[in-house]
Write a structure and sequence with these properties.
The chain is an alpha+beta fold. It is about 40% helix and about 25% strand. It is built from nine helices and 17 strands. It has a five-stranded antiparallel β-sheet with strand order 5-4-7-2-10, with no helix packed on it. Strands 9-8-3-6-12 form a five-stranded mixed β-sheet, with no helix packed on it. It is rod-shaped. About 25% of the residues are buried. The N terminus and C terminus are likely disordered.
């Protein structure tokens, strides 16, 4: 036992010595592996420049190198200096600048190198006397291989005035090769630098999707398409305005001709009929026929006045519409026992209110007044025209006997016609009534502005035209049913 203890005591120092030797050997191997990075001058090439050296001279040096397609960069260190100043570029991106030839500048470009071809470009400046650039790049790959780029005669000198030379991946055949001025440590330069400057590490430039070429091309294409569509819509709008101008001019001409020609002829016809009546015996069959003819002619004159109001473009305003509706209601209810009360909102202005809209709304109001005169038995009727939000609202309310809308037969009293007209305009017709509590009819027409929207007019133009064609005969029947309330 004692022998084993003595053996252990004497063998322990030897074991520790062997372990120390092994550690020293491993550190030595590691230092040998890292030897190129221990000394900053390892891997540097020669001092290179143009063939001629001048004072205040600018020299542009260029070179490319390749990283294998499947190569993964684990470490890349770039060391350089220039007598006197330099600006360093990698693939067109500025990495840094230096202005002291006695010192070395070290760049860590590990994150900037990927498989493929890369471009090194150095813009050098010499103030006076000697000039040269010293350069060394070592790239270690994951598979153990390494790539070295040194300053030698494989570099190219780029003439001044060359465009985008810091990004060019192919050299121009006219670019001359660099000239080796002196080897590393050769006169008149140093054998060891006075200082080593570690330059800030740069990260790869992140390219977001909106910075990619395909996105920018797509965005430009969409913008161009939007501009073309906008120009097309502007052209259509200009054409539409011109068409409306021609239409209004034609409407004015038609209104003048109807008033000056047909109106005067109808008036003469009534006058001739009245003159002929005076020469006939009272109560004779011919006199009765002439009286009927004169009455029908007066009715035609009244209808023609309404047509002239609808056709005349100078009446296409909210103010004229409200005034005409009030005047019509007053004249329509004058022969009856119904007293009419008017309430017109102060916001009724001279804003445009086009013919298709005001014509349909007027016909619906006439139907409501006709129903009140014929069926309500009312003594008072209130007509209210006002704005509510972005809608024009017309209310016709009486104090008559009322009715139950649920038991009214479909199509009776023109209720269906009023609802249909409002649907055509994008509005609605609301009828509220109870037996013994009168009736209230509300017409609501949406307008985005106190004027009829031009685009809405364009959109609904075909529907108005189609509806007029399909229901033309129905409108004639409606006119024939507009009886004088005094004859009911």
């Amino acid at each position: 036992m004692i022998g084993w203890l003595l053996l252990a005591l004497f063998s322990a120092p030897a074991a520790r010595a062997d372990a120390a030797d092994n550690t020293a050997d491993s550190q030595k191997i590691q230092m040998e592996q890292e030897a190129p990075y221990v000394s900053p001058t390892n891997g540097l090439g020669s001092w290179i420049w143009e063939e001629k050296t001048l004072d205040n001279q600018t020299c542009q040096l260029w070179k490319t190198f390749e990283i294998p397609n499947q190569g993964t960069v684990t470490n890349a260190r770039l060391v350089m200096t220039t007598d006197n100043e330099f600006t360093l570029y990698l693939d067109g991106r500025e990495l840094g600048r230096g202005a002291e030839w006695r010192e070395l500048f070290v760049f860590d470009v590990t994150q900037l190198l990927t498989p493929g071809r890369h471009v090194l470009a150095v813009n050098c400046y010499n103030g006076s006397f000697f000039a040269g650039m010293l350069f060394g790049l070592r790239v270690d790959l994951a598979d153990g291989r390494s790539i070295e780029v040194k300053s030698d005669k494989s570099w190219k000198v780029v003439p001044e005035g060359a465009g985008r030379w810091t990004k060019r991946t192919e050299a121009d055949p006219l670019w001359p090769a660099a000239t080796v001025i002196a080897p590393l440590g050769g006169s008149p330069w140093w054998t060891a630098p006075t200082a080593v400057n570690m330059m800030p590490s740069l990260q790869p430039i992140r390219v977001f999707f909106w910075q990619t070429g395909w996105f920018q091309i797509t965005l430009l294409s969409v913008c161009a398409l939007v501009i073309l569509i906008s120009f097309r819509l502007m052209a259509q709008l200009a054409l539409h305005r011109k068409e409306r101008w021609f239409l209004q001019r034609e409407r004015s001409r038609i209104a003048r001709e109807i008033h000056d020609d047909i109106g005067s002829r109808m008036t003469q016809l009534v006058l001739h009929g009245e003159v002929a009546q005076s020469g006939l015996a009272a109560g004779s069959e011919l006199q009765v026929q002439l009286v009927q003819i004169c009455e029908e002619a007066r009715g035609l004159l009244s209808t023609m006045d309404e047509i002239l109001w609808a056709v005349n473009p100078r009446r296409d305003t909210l103010r004229d519409f409200a005034a005409y509706v009030c005047k019509y209601a007053q004249e329509f209810l004058a022969p009856t026992k119904i007293q009419c009360l008017f309430e017109v909102g102060p916001e009724m202005s001279a804003a445009a209110f086009d013919m298709p809209l005001r014509r349909s709304l007027l016909m619906a109001i006439k139907e409501a007044l006709n129903n009140a005169a014929k069926y309500s038995g009312a003594t008072e009727l209130r007509l209210r025209i006002h704005w509510q939000g972005q809608q024009l609202v017309v209310e016709v309310q009486d104090n008559g006997k009322g009715f139950d809308p649920a038991v009214v037969k479909g199509g009776r009293n023109g209720l269906g016609n009023m609802a249909q007209r409002m649907n055509e305009l994008g509005g609605h017709c609301l009828i509220t009534s109870q037996p013994g509590q009168g009736c209230r009819v509300e017409f609501s027409v949406p307008l985005t502005h106190p004027r009829w929207n031009t685009w809405m007019w364009i959109w609904n133009a075909n529907s108005f035209r189609a509806h007029n064609i399909e229901t033309g005969s129905d409108r004639l029947d409606e006119r024939s049913q507009d009886h004088d309330p005094t004859k009911c």
